[in-house]
Amino acid sequence: MGPTSEPDIDTLVVGGGLAGLVAATTAARAGGRTVLLEPHPLGGRARVDERSGFRFNRGPRALYLGGAGRPALEALGVDLSAGGAPALGRAMARRDGRLHRLPSGPMSLLRTSLLRPGDKVRLAGLLARLPKVDAPALSGTTFAAYLADQRLSPVAADLVRMLARVATYAADLDDLDAGALVAQLQLALAPGVRYLDGGFQSLVDQLRAAAWDAGVEVRPVAARAVLPAGADGAATVEAVDHRLQARTVVLATGTPSAAEALLGAPLVGADHLSPPVTAACLELGLRRPPAHPVVFGVGEPLYLSTHCPPALLAPPGQVVVHLMRNHAAGEALDAKAQRAWLRSAAAEAGVAEADVAEERFLAEMVVTGGLPTAQGGGLSGRPEASAADRPGVLLAGDWVGPVGLLADAAIASGAEAGRQAARRAATMAVA
Hints:
This protein is an alpha/beta fold. The protein has 11 helices and 19 strands. Strands 1, 2, 10, 11, 12, 13 and 19 form a 7-stranded mixed beta sheet that branches. Strands 8-7-15-16-17-14-18 form a 7-stranded mixed beta sheet, sandwiched between helices. It has a 3-stranded antiparallel beta sheet with strand order 5-9-6, with no helix packed on it. 54% of the residues are buried.
């Protein structure tokens, strides 16, 4: 099985999620011939499924307005203006089966029944200090140690854990890097997030158009292995019945284990990450809004938020609500039990059975390929674009590089891999 007989490929991207689309478009815009391999519909976990006019993200998705992804997308011509902010002014916190006003600002903190007066004062102090914290200085400190230093009551500490869980989708927070989590909390609190019209499919569609305009060739082909570079420095990707050579191969495969499976070798820094983060997700298309549009669990892994409105995701006058149960390590709930738990939470938020026009359940959605741990050195300890430790092979994904978490990391690392691939192509062309 030899290489295909076709003109030289400068950059070959494996994976068509956000990271792969950004990498391919960035590389192609620099002038090199770029091919993207993706056997499934483009978008990866950013795809949106439409059912009866309701558009369901694959789990709740939000654009961080102050994150690294926004300028990188805008540089590629992606319009991010359509959508709106969650209705946090009416948000509730659920603890021990009771709903309380969620302290999302000074007035709601004053009025909530969740905290005692002294707890409110200490939490207000923490929230006031948080935007000014030097997050990188906390790198190497566990989130558990950081939280213990704040000397909060158990309820107030659980409230901070809830904020971190909503911002990262992770149930297991203790060993994660405090620097990375505090930086994410700073983004979540100000300037906040936007739910996008059309969901994250709007990003996928615009990136697909940008890739097309840049000349990216998209092929519905699955990669089976990435072989070591030959004497000419070109890397080789083995598909089902042929091989493709390129000056640079970018692996944007979703998780470290998927990249390692293609390489047949471990990645430098992959052991610095948490295991992949997963969650059970329930999406509901409703005929009317719930009584409580936002409910977050305090001391329990519940997320419930009405994404439409503000975003356009449903037929006129109807509603989309996303629910999620974050998975903890070793949790043994079966799919039926998780779905029932989420349906019960929806009922407590005011969703009647007759309100539900459409629904979709995902028992184990991969949220991110891994989060930075304190022991691994935080963001700077994550695998770098070059961490494949193989000439001509780069990485991109939400677990790669020193910038951002979740989609921000995927987009930022994709842009960096695309730039490095373009530079390598130019260097090899001169040589």
